[in-house]
Amino acid sequence: MNALRHGFSIGIERVEDEFFLTLKAKGKLTHSDYLAITPVIDSALSEVKQPKIKALFDATELEGWELSAAWDDLKLGLKHGNQFIKIALYGNKGWQETATKIGRWFVAGEMKYFDNEADAFAWLNE
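That's the STAS/SEC14 domain-containing protein sequence above. Prediction below.
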């Protein structure tokens, strides 16, 4: 029996009011994946008055979202979008670059697509 693996892994580093967030998405994301990840992000950001977030999003194993999970993603972006100063998404599928362009509508900071992690990381640290 093959189990379908999906969900997020997350890393959060904080230096005063700056956050460095790393996310890796795997499989087709579900509503329950967002129920698990949202409180972690909310809790980390609640401790700082005006957090400034740089995020590295690894979408190389992302296959997409269930409809309810896409809605959850939008809500999370609307809630914290003004706290992100840079988001680098790296992936390996054409639709991911389009998704990055759409995501820019909901984020106050810069958002850019990359096809490799090294370039994405370098851009975040400029």
